[in-house]
Amino acid sequence: MYLSRFLSIHALWVTVSSVMQPYPLVWGHYDVCKTQIYTEEGKVWDYMACQPESTDMTKYLKVKLDPPDITCGDPPETFCAMGNPYMCNNECDASTPELAHPPELMFDFEGRHPSTFWQSATWKDYPKPLQVNITLSWSKTIELTDNIVITFESGRPDQMILEKSLDYGRTWQPYQYYATDCLDAFHMDPKSVKDLSQHTVLEIICTEEYSTGYMTNSKIIHFEIKDRFAFFAGPWLRNMASLYGQLDTTKKLRDFFTVTDLRIRLLRPAVGEIFVDELHLARYFYAISDIKVHGRCKCNLHATVCVYDNSKLTCECEHNTTGPDCGKCKKNYQGRPWSPGSYLPIPKGTANTCIPSISSIGTNVCDNELLHCQNGGTCYNNVRCLCPAAYTGILCEKLRCEEAGSCGSDSGQGAPPPGSPALLLLTAMLGTASPLLV
């Protein structure tokens, strides 16, 4: 008995280990922006690419409906139950909390019974189209990390478009079309994400997978983020180095998964038949019980923290960067052009830190051509000079004992060399050949 139990536990552990083992080897967590390392000079900062954790982004959005009076209940109206479309004694009344279905119920905690949901007015104005735009706005650039999932309490719509904006709603591009008949609705051949490939992953498709009338077990619509990731990272997303490499080098791919706003365009409710039943128009409406959007603040790999303050998301920028997305170098740290961090090489990436500006010397703190570190110092990543123990300063131009006021004949350190190395360097760069007076 004990042997069989041990073997079962061992088998389970082997299975779990085999599943988990590849992840530490290929995933870069990017949850630390810098760490201290020890060098001959002492402790210095080692910088690396970093990003906030993925989270439920619906906690931070603002929702807008167009037309604004499309929510049911004002005035009160009756509608038909989904299980029996001819039992039309359900009521929506905005003035009664138990009977109201406001937009915020698309984002509340799920799991209650009965479920809570937003609901539109019914199609009482048929044949005028019943159309609704639901706009989700973050006032911040975010990167999507998981599937967008919309759960309908009504039948899934016969026609719908999911759109995205990268400029805070000024312009919109389609993400995906949904229809019971793609050719009829949008003049597009039906496809699914499985029909795509690495080379066509950015193609905008129309799918018929998620538009099926009144089936009670078919309430969900997906926009498949992870399936698109899998074209580069494999079906279990184990080869993230490949995906990160593509995101680093292909701006269009990176932008595809980046949004400031999403818009759900509901164009035709679930009819379920060829013809609309004009005698029972209370059957036709939209109702959404849940919307899931997982992602992270876009901080250009220069921050691990994104704070929500005064109804606004902002990156807490590292690497001497600043801005809502850490999209520029801080003042006095513009020694080289700003650049986003890089995921590569795995697992730490490259920080591309902004470096101090020294306008009188040049764009770099030091290099091995014009901006030499003095007195035996060595240049570290063009960011700083690593000085011998006896020297300090930006270019190792000062004796350490000078700062302590202990230089002397018995200090073991000679007097400082005549002239200022920084001024000598500036003179040389300006082409001045005359000796510097001291």
UniProtKB/TrEMBL annotation:
Organism: Zalophus californianus (California sealion)
Domain Laminin N-terminal: 46-296
Signal peptide (residue range): 1-28
Gene this chain is encoded by: NTNG1
Top-rank taxon: Eukaryota
Protein name, entry field: Netrin-G1 isoform X4
SMART domains recorded: EGF_Lam (SM00180), LamNT (SM00136)
Origin organism lineage: Eukaryota, Metazoa, Chordata, Craniata, Vertebrata
UniProtKB keywords: Disulfide bond, EGF-like domain, Glycoprotein, Laminin EGF-like domain, Repeat, Signal
PROSITE patterns, sorted: EGF_1 (PS00022), EGF_3 (PS50026), LAMININ_NTER (PS51117)
Covalent S-S links between cysteines: 387-396
Classification via InterPro entries: EGF, Laminin/Netrin_ECM, Laminin_N, LE_dom, LMN_ATRN_NET-like_EGF
A biological-process GO annotation: animal organ morphogenesis
Keyword Signal included in the entry's annotation: yes
Pfam families xref list: EGF_LMN_ATRN, Laminin_N
CDD domains: EGF_CA, EGF_Lam
rRNA-binding recorded as keyword: no
Domain EGF-like: 362-397
